[in-house]
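For anyone still unconvinced, we reproduce a single protein record, the chain in one-letter code, the fold tokenised, and leave readers to judge:
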Amino acid sequence: MKPVWSRVTLALLLAVTTLTISTALAADIDANLKTILGVGSEGKGNPEASAAWKELAQSPIGDLPRVLAAFDDANPLAANWLRSAAEAIAARELKATGKLPQAELEKFIAATEHNPRARRMAYEWVLQVDPTAADRLIPGMLNDPSVEFRRDAVVRLIDAGTKQLADNQNDLAKATFEKALNGARDEDQIDAIVKPLEKLGVKVDLARHFGFILDWYLIGPFDNTGKKGFALTYPPETEIKLDAKYPGQKGEVGWSKHVTDGKYGMFDLNKITAPHKGAVTYALAEFVSDKEQTVDVRLGTPNAYKVWVNGDFIFGREEYHRGSSIDQYRLRAKLKQGKNQILLKVCQNEQTEDWAQGWQYQLRVCDATGTAILSTTRPAPVQTAALSTAEGK
């Protein structure tokens, strides 16, 4: 019989060996992820990424959530490498065992700070091993940052409300459609919700419900020929004087007040200030908050833009004619108690194609879930749906 100390020593050696191998594998995974995340345009880092991908694709299934988490810091090229590696890992495990680490993947899906694309990949894999997961996961995603998840949750509510209407359960249907409206961001779904609500006698003020700002002071156009205006600092960026006059692109310009009656708060600058090309217009809104708070400033525009809140630069994007949608850009900003100024710079380029003529914006203030936060100076509605807003928060 072997001495007890020999068995203990052997166990310790095995544990140390296992820990050493695990540490080495973790280091290899970290190194491979770092290499892939370093890939750039014009082929930069591609040979190294190819070699790293071959090793990463052979990672054990337990490392799949780590690969997915790397999407958080990945540019589009790196994301393609990561997607391919993750798919290889999952496919190999499904073929070998028919199983995946469902609990770990669902935990990853629930972590809304992760990349929406990676979360969706994890969700699709979970469905392969557990088709009932959709019934468990999707209903809780009504205000999810992921457009796809949120849309799926809204679809379920629309379907439920439609069935309740067919069964003459009008009160239930009303509550269901109102809940769906709180999560809907796509116009086709919003229309599909508002129509039955109106048939049920509910008047919906969409601009108020979502918190779109309808009153703006505008000034422009300033020069953006050759796209130079985005980087240039025009007077509205350094001072706000509503009675001031400045040299503009086509002569002297000053501030003027405008109000939109669009149900989604859209300001069409082509109609308001004329369809200028190679031009910059600034928009200023006053927002009165009853307390100091951090909010979402959500913007939709097909144009290059910059946003300031109380003189502090929040974010900008020099991209033209990508399309426009509700909540296209989500920016975090801090409001002080009392009066706040939101300044928006909207740049139009000189493209002549029909699809490149849009010069417009819509902007709303809300909390992180998308619930509207209204300025305390906003007039009371004449008649609206009794829907959830953060008015008076």
Observations:
- The CA atoms of residues 267 and 291 lie 28 Å apart.
- The first strand starts at residue 215 and ends at 223.
- The chain is about 40% helix and 20% strand.
- The chain has three domains: 4-131, 147-202, 210-366.
